[in-house]
Amino acid sequence: MKNKCDIVQDLLPLYVDGCCTQGSRELVEEHLKECPACKQAFGEMTGEIPVPEEPQPEAEPVSAEPVPEEPEKKQEKTFRKGMKKIRRRWIASLIVVIILVPLLLLGINQVRGEGLCYTNLREFYLAHAFLGKMKAGDYEGATKYVDRETRRGEFQERFTEEELANYDQDAIDTFVAAAQGYTEMGGLSGYRFHWGGYASAMVGGESFDGDTFYRFDFTITVGGKDYLASLEVTDNGVTNCSVYDNPMGGPQQLNAINVWEYTLWDEYEARYDNPEREAAYTAFVEKRAYESGLQVAPK
How far apart are CA 99 and CA 193, in angstroms? Predict the structure, then answer.
């Protein structure tokens, strides 16, 4: 068979060119039907069968030699990393100080019983919220931080529930009208709490109903002029806001909001005047004053 393959492969060029005899042609064709090797050789000559590509060996990855880092850049990189760590630690320490120092001061004031402390933080917030609304000129909004309920209790001792049906709206309207004095004087443009000093935040005492109130001192700026303002606040809101310009008191327009409840009281008295009620209320006041130790027993 090997000799026949040699003969056929010798005849293939003549067969491809069509120059062999009829007998040689038949021999080649018959052999190609049964010999894959010669058929492959015929295909390579005629292009009918693609020549298989020899597998190429995979190129081995060339390991890149690390480029040595310059000493200056290495030192700079190390320095930046060190500074980054220091910065993070410094920021963390600062945050701890910012948190702990106020907590420590609040605790000290709590023990001393003066200054901002844990038990008057709500009252301090209400004072700030009240002044914030006043600064914005939202006088009706400021009444949300006014202790109207304590005043309602005093009104209930004198007037009936039917007569107090519109108390909330009447109180709001009376306060807003009184607060217009701030607008007349140029408006409240700023305020700041007095952090130093004994009187900046202290227990002011108890209200007529026995609620503890705290006093906070602020400097308020109205019409470009600074005034000392003292706010008395319970956990229900502001009960008084006194403004001082001198020992005799501040401008009447600014102190009007301190007496809004008296204005409303006078209006209710004028509206529901009753001698019997007047006598009953006078007896009630005298009794409460006696119980508080302010005067001798009523006759």
Answer: 20
In a domain? residue 273: yes
Structure tokens at 59: 């190129």
Q: Are 190 and 135 in contact (CB under 8 A)?
A: yes
- Radius of gyration (Cα) for the chain, nearest Å? 50
Alpha-carbon distances, residue 173 vs 50, 122, 169, 179, 263 (angstroms): 103, 26, 6, 10, 11
pLDDT at 149: 86
Considering the domain architecture, whether residues 249 and 228 belong to the same structural domain is answered as yes
Is pLDDT at 50 greater than 50 in this prediction?
no
89 shares a domain with 131: no
CA distance 230 to 91: 38
Could you tell me if 147 and 212 are in contact, meaning their C-beta atoms sit under 8 angstroms apart? no
CA 143 – CA 167 distance, rounded (Å) = 13
Residue 107: CB atoms within 10 Å: 12
How far is the C-alpha of 253 from the C-alpha of 288, rounded, in Å?
32
| Dihedral class, residue 205 (left if φ above 0, else alpha if ψ from -120 to 50, else beta) | left
Range of the domain at 218: 118-291
* Domain assignment of residue 284, yes or no: yes
List, for residues 238-280, the tens digit of each pLDDT value: 998 989 877 666 788 999 998 999 999 999 988 887 777 677 7
Domains held by the chain: number: 3
Residue 59 lies in a domain: no
Compute CA distances 184 → 137, 204, 251, 253, 254, whole Å. Answer: 11, 30, 11, 8, 10
What is the rounded distance in angstroms from the CA atom of residue 147 to the CA atom of residue 235? 8
Residue 164 and residue 150: Cα distance in Å, rounded? 14
- Both tokens of residue 119? 């038990």
Q: Any idea what the Cα angle at residue 200 is, between residues 195 and 205, rounded to 5°?
A: 150
